[in-house]
Amino acid sequence: MARARSVAVVMSLLILLPGCVTQSDDPPEETKENNCEINPTNEGCFENIVTEDDCDPTQVFTGDYCRAMLMPEELDFGTSLAILEVGAEMQPLTPSFLGDAPSAWAVNPQLPDGIVIDHESGVISGNPNLQANATQYTIVASNSAGLSSFRIEIVVLPPPVLSIELESPVLYCTKGEPCQMSNSSFSGGEPDTWECDPALPIGLKISHNGSISGFSEQLGDSNHTVIASNKGGSATTNLRIVTTQQSPNTVDYGGGIFTFTIGLPVSIDPITSGGEITTWSISPNLPKGLSIDTSGGISGSPEILQETTPYTITAENNGGTAQVTILIGVIDIPILDLEYFRDSFELYTGGEIGGITPTWTGGAPISWEVHPPLPDGFEIDHETGEISGTATDLQGWSTHTIWANNSGGGDYTELSFRVVSQPPQTVSWPQSEIALASNESASISPLYSGPAIESWEVSPSLPHGLQISEEGVIFGVPESRTDWTEFTLWANNTGGSSTSELWIAVHDLSADQDDLLRGMGQTSWGGWPSPILPIGEWSFPVAFAQGGYTSDIPVVSASHVGKGRMLGFGHESWVYGSGGSEETEFSLGAVEWVCGTNADVGLAYGAGFEGFQEELESEGHTVHLSVSPDDLSGLDCLLDEFWNGHDDQDNEELVTFLQGGGGLIMGGHAWYWSYSNEDVSHNYPGNKIAKTTGLFVSDAWGYNDVDMSESPHQLSRPWAAIEAIRADRIDGEHLSMDDASVADSTLSLCTGVVSLDFHLFWSPLREVVNQTGWTVIEYGTLWEDVGYDLGEDPVADTILRVESALTQGLPADELPSHPSHSEFPGEVPPNSSRISTTVTVDGNQSGLPSNFGYSSARAHVRMTTGTYAAPGEVVTVTVPPELVDSGTYILVGAHSDSLWRKDQLHRHPDIDRWWYIEGTTIEVGNAFGGPIYLAIEPGSTLGVFEVSISNAVEAPTYIHGETGVQDWIENISNAPAPWAEIASEQFILTVPSHEIRNLDDPDDLMDWWDEALEMEHELYGFLPWPRVERAVFDAQISVGWMHSGYPFMAHDLSVPAVVNVSQISEEGDWGMFHELGHNHQWMPSTLPGTTETGCNFASVYLMEDLVGISGHGAIAPEQRESRTRSYFENGANISDWSVWVALETFLMVKEEWSWAAITSALSVYYDIPDSEAPSSDEDKFNAWVLHLSNSTGYNLAPYHTAWGFPLGQTTFDSLDHLPVWVEDPLRGQYYEYPAILRGLSSPTISEPNSANITWETYDNGTNITLTVFYGESDGGNQTSAWSNSVVYGSTNVGVESTEITGLSCCGTDYYARIRASNEAGETWFGPISWSTGYLPD
To answer: 1237: which of 290, 752, 814, 1325 fits an S-S bond (Cβ 3.0–4.6 Å)?
Structure first.
């Protein structure tokens, strides 16, 4: 106002200045003073002053006015490549741009560690602390007018190598010998590569750590430059390498002592090793007559006698010397023709030989020797050579050499002794029946400790390839399979013999497979099978089918059991060949393999195999009906079911029958059995004999198309796979990648289902784990490329499966502390106290109805105890009697996602452990450690009870409304367990303890989460919500970033935001709301294509109404408009209607009637009996439109038809009492609606020359033009067939009419139809008919 006044004064003064006259000659008008204070509205009293506050966010204040803000353009940082060094401050990069200054800066991906972007100025600066590969970064500068981006490549190099220092500047090597210089030292950055220039001498190399090693292969003296470098730079130093000749190594004259006879020629030559010898010498001088030559040879004829004397011979070259010392003596004439009058003595124990004196010629002996020593009780006189003594010990023939010696040499003769023993005792064998594998090395040793056995005999002859050794060991490689044969073995000695019997069979499992398959091809059987796992030593798969959730599974397997044979089918109907003629042919072949030809075949009582009788008898078999295991006499085999009602006695009879040579064929599946039973290893009837038969029925399932065209891979047999795994890891016989993959696939079907008390299966696998050690998997977050890569080493994968089976199956007191627990879920501090506590548990838990299909609705409800089991430690839990066998478990471990389907593991795949409560006191534990829960079966009404827990670790536990905040801050949050729980009446968060140690507002946090959960429950309309939802945060989950279920699972990267009430309340968490929304999806009301849509109701609702933001770019207006337009431009095909497009359908309804309409429609489904709930896709679409229309009070059938819903006429008819939603957002924007007319009529008798036609416009469509066609005949829906028409024009909802004139009078019959047309097409209504009236007389 002050400025306005001053302007007015100035203007007044200007008017009064001289020269300011009017432009006419008229007398000047009287000037009136313009007083702005009195009349502020007068002209010139007000000036419009613009300030910065007058500008909106899209404008810029220039100082005088607001102009439109300019978007930043041509963003540039002056370089497209920045090369940085770890630890070195970078030169800041300052942006330049055209336009107005950005208000926000963003970069993607995140800059290297230590480098930051200033979010006000956009300057990039910092000190990188980690090396990083070249990466493209996109920097986005934006303001309200728009954005601009710039791409820059940044690479962070390590510090350069500054200098290197070798162990020595000179390396001395010997040609052909190892030469080495240890690690070199360096300063500056660590070198990536080491090189030499020129190259090192042949045979030497430089390693990655700078050490030099190898075998120098050439003499010489060379200089080299050693270069150490990394991406940041390099350093050099000099090295001299000197290689000299290898010194002589050894000299050998073939012996150390040489005795020459006087006067006889001598010639001995040395054998040398090492370098070439240039000089020979000997000390002292050789005996007269002998000399050494230039090649080291000694020759000549000795001329004098000499005692044995040492001589040192030296071989020399420029590399060194080698010496050898030999003894040389010169002797006289030797002894000749030594003998005793008798050369063999066969004696009994106690027999004497008296004194036996030798004779000889030549020189006189001066000493006597005997070797080997004479039998116990005999001796030689070392002066005379006389032998005497008495036999004391039993022995077979032994031969002894007697020497008579003098300085000229000796002579020898041989004497033999035998001391007869008592006849051999009975020989036994490790087993009375032994099976061997054809073409594999075998050895069977007798068990014997009696008198010595001299020889062995066997009858009949052993199988080809086997023989018996002198020690009675049956050994060799049997060449082909044989049936069970009883062999008689004789053990003989001079005192007699003994006999023993041994049954031997040679199995060729590959030949058995070929016999059974008989050139079969593709087959298709009735019924879905279970796998028949051939886990026994002599079990083998026959045929495979595709598994339901796995790779191929063995659905037909066989086994040798004792002297008998067994074959198992994965479905009971396969026993008699259900499926067709080829399948029946196989079943008959199986009977022949198991039972033999023309066999007595029993069909088990109640098995339903009677229809197989005719086929069996046509093959020459004799069939016995209604056979039970207690009467198998006279039968060759029995056909029975795995899923049978046999008791222990029946099973014992079957095993005895098999082991005695009988045959057994069983069929049956366990997958359906497992729906209402547990512990398939011990409780499934067919598996009660599996430890003996080697055929185990798994509770998995597969398809019934069975490929029988090829024999299975050798390693598809579990026993062979186990041996291969053991040989790979323990014996170093490495498997190829393909074979290892087969072995792993084979064992993966077994390790998760076969219980640990099947010792023959598990013992060698446990040995491998014990030998190789437990697998430690490095912890990593979702984005880190660390951990364990499944499939990279299939043998290691198998070992990992074994570890999982052990940690999941061992009793608590045998569980180890798995070393990988330190990576995840974490360590219990070593000084942590163990506590005993009693907790109160509410055992009344209904769970959720099963129609909440994504919520794990019938999962056991976890009840927090506030305790934690340390890894590998036994925790004792005491419960009231009513919990025993109530379906209640003790769960140890919160992280229940199994990760076997992941490519890379960031933790062990199975780290929770469930313990069924079988008694009032139970020992529990977990090899990895974990929180302890009571897991209550849904539907339980166990009441409130107390549970005692001892030897546990206290876990940080906050219960909203029970735990005092101050107590939490000062005490409870510091409890030592590595995992904590924050709980309220609606929601429980299981998080790493380190994330909540400093949480000082758990009450505010859980108030917020309670509100969020209550809003979700209310949105979906199922109230009261009967379960407290849980979120468990994990290093890795089975699928996705998060996933629904109980518990709802998320990555631990989310924890900091989830427990920060300030952040979560301002930013929300679309993903958390989304997954919890999944838990609220009712299957009958979840339309096809909306699995990922209905859950987003919660995300949209909570982000908008709780957090106050949209929360997802996909629901931004421009995204919605673009997506909807694209959908309709592509024909609005319902097969494309899913996720975001489908969400738009609901959002338009929500924006018209609020979420309440959708909630109301959803709520209808909860009261519909399952038998009446929509099940087909079409039924679901139609039902939803009915319920939503009734909820809104408007007929939404046309709206949903526009979206492509396949609605039936019944739906339209059911809603025709409701008004159509004619103002929906699709009309005129995305979709041209047809009109709907009804009640088309005219008077039966019209006026003579005119008629009035009326109708109700139920839906006026989009841009509709109505045309009335009429004539004396019905032209149908063809315009050309009508003689007359009149354009009515547009239409509105309601009753309308039009008059047709110019008609022929007097009873002329007329017909009419109305066409409603727009650019999308036309719709015809009618026909109607009438007759014209008569003119008045």
So the answer is: 1325
> Hey, which residues does 179 pair with through a beta bridge?
214
Buried b (16+ CB within 10 A) or exposed e, 841-850: bebebebbbe
- pLDDT tens-digit readout, 43-97: 666 567 788 888 888 888 888 889 888 999 989 988 989 988 888 899 999 999 8
Q: What is the pTM of this model?
A: 0.68
Q: 305 and 331 in contact (C-beta within 8 Å)?
A: yes
In the chain, the largest separation of any two C-alpha atoms, in whole Å, equals 186
What residue type is 585 in one-letter code?
A: E
**How far lies 237's CA from each of 197, 210, 339, 907, 913, in Å?**
11, 12, 80, 46, 60
Q: Which of 263, 270, 267, 309 is nearest to 286 (CA)?
A: 309
Which pLDDT score, from 0 to 100, does residue 27 have? Answer: 40
Q: Does the pLDDT at position 336 exceed 70?
A: yes
- Residue pair 677/584 in contact (Cβ under 8 Å)? The answer is no
Tokens 């309200």 correspond to 144
646-695: pLDDT as tens digits: 999 999 999 999 999 999 999 999 999 999 998 999 999 999 999 999 99
Residue 784: CB atoms within 10 A of its CB come to 12
Q: Please tell me whether residue 1062 adopts helix, strand or coil conformation.
A: helix
HSE toward the beta carbon, residue 511, CA cutoff 13 A: 11
Instruction: Catalogue the E-assigned strands of 760-860.
Output: 788-789, 835-845
Other beta carbons within 10 Å of 254: 10
**Dist. CA 100–CA 104, nearest whole Å:** 12
Neighbours of 352 (CB within 10 A): 12
Model confidence at 17: pLDDT above 60 = no
For residue 714, with 0-12 CB atoms within 10 Å meaning exposed, 13-18 middle and 19 or more buried, which class applies? middle
State the Cα–Cα distance between residues 1001 and 855, nearest whole angstrom. Answer: 29
| Helical pair 759-772 and 794-809, crossing angle rounded to 10 deg | 110
Encoding tokens for residue 628? 């039970």
Q: Cβ neighbours of residue 973 under 8 Å, at least 6 residues apart?
A: 956, 958, 980, 996, 997, 998, 999
d(CA 755, CA 535): 12
Please provide the DSSP assignment of 615-645 as one string.
Answer: HHHHTT-EEEEEE-TT--TT-SEEEEESS--
